[in-house]
Amino acid sequence: MEPIRLNKYLSEQGICSRREADRLIEAGKVTIDGRKAGMGEKVTGEETIYCDGKPVGKTAGGKKVKPVLLVVNKPRGIVCTTSDKDRAPNVLDLIKYPTRVYPVGRLDKDSEGLLLMTNQGELANQIIHAGSLHEKEYLVTVDQPFNAAFLKKMREGVELKELGVTTRPCQVEATGAKSFKIILTQGLNRQIRRMCGELGYRVVTLKRIRIMNIHLGKLNTGDFRKVTPKEWEELEWQLEQAREEREAELEPEAERE
């Protein structure tokens, strides 16, 4: 096997996403041949590798990992990170799934709703890819009634001075005097809360109900389920379409003619 970056190797082994792997490496929780691994290090898979005290790859016996993709209804107060720095209940402890899975992206501690969890690193990377424009749908309640001007500004894009960016145009629809449904195609840190804050509103409740074609439905808070074969098939089709669109955009104009 050709040497590959350690974070990619851990992802392919179904341990965690590349982003989470980087956090574990930085925290000193990954070892190679008995020493702490370094950021950006490459491996072949022949090494003795441990992640968070558990053997990986050849060290674990090289068993083929059965693909898992779960829909979790995360309650408020539960964190998605697998580190212990938050000193708060962890989503892994919440579901107690028999094999190792990890969150696809984040849903902050004060938010609730749909969280995908998997053991498929590349699948996770495709879903959270920053340029993929995948839809994510939320139900939001704010602390005071809003008007049409608020909805218009939310739809057209809000300048987030703290991050130095303006949000992409999005779909927003009022569902009550102080509540609305919003569909985003980007995932900035605490984006909806920041957008509302810039316009003078405070988010009271925030619930994610859809990621791409996967819906939360009537799943009870704190429960989880496996995605259906039909959901998984449709998800992979959408990811493939997105990949082809990105490649077409990068194609030189001469090659398109």
Beta-strand residue fraction: 25-35%
Instruction: Quickly count the helices.
Output: 8
Oligomer: single chain
Please state the structural category. alpha+beta
Mean pLDDT figure: 87
Please give the alpha-carbon distance between the first and last residues.
Answer: 38 Å
Rg is 20 Å
Shape: globular
- Compressed to H and E, one letter per element, the order equals EHHEEEEEEHEEHEHEEEEHEEEHH
Total beta-strand segments:
17
| Percent in helix | 25-40%
Sequence stretches where pLDDT stays below 50 over 5 or more residues: none
Tell me about the largest β-sheet: 9 strands, mixed
Task: List the topology elements.
Blueprint lengths: L3 E2 H7 L5 H9 L3 E3 L2 E2 L5 E2 L5 E3 L2 E3 L12 E6 L16 H5 L6 E2 L8 E7 L2 H8 L7 E7 L5 H9 L2 E2 L4 E2 L4 E4 L4 E6 L6 H8 L4 E9 L2 E2 L8 E3 L2 H22 L2 H4 L1
Parallel strand pairs: 9-15
Antiparallel strand pairs: 1-4, 2-3, 2-5, 5-6, 7-9, 7-17, 8-9, 10-14, 10-15, 11-12, 13-14, 15-16
Helix pairs in contact: 1-2
Could you please describe the fold and organization of this structure?
- Strands 7, 8, 9, 10, 13, 14, 15, 16 and 17 form a nine-stranded mixed β-sheet that branches.
- The longest helix is centred in the last third of the chain and has 22 residues, at 229-250.
- By secondary structure, this protein is of the alpha+beta class.
- The protein is built from eight helices and 17 strands.
- It has helices at 6-12, 18-26, 91-95, 121-128, 148-156, 191-198, 229-250, 253-256; strands spanning 4-5, 30-32, 35-36, 42-43, 49-51, 54-56, 69-74, 102-103, 112-118, 136-142, 159-160, 165-166, 171-174, 179-184, 203-211, 214-215, 224-226.
- It is globular, with a radius of gyration of 20 Å.
- Helix 1 (6-12) crosses helix 2.
- Helices cover 28% and strands 25% of the residues.
- Strand 5 (49-51) and strand 6 form a beta hairpin.
- The mean pLDDT is 87.
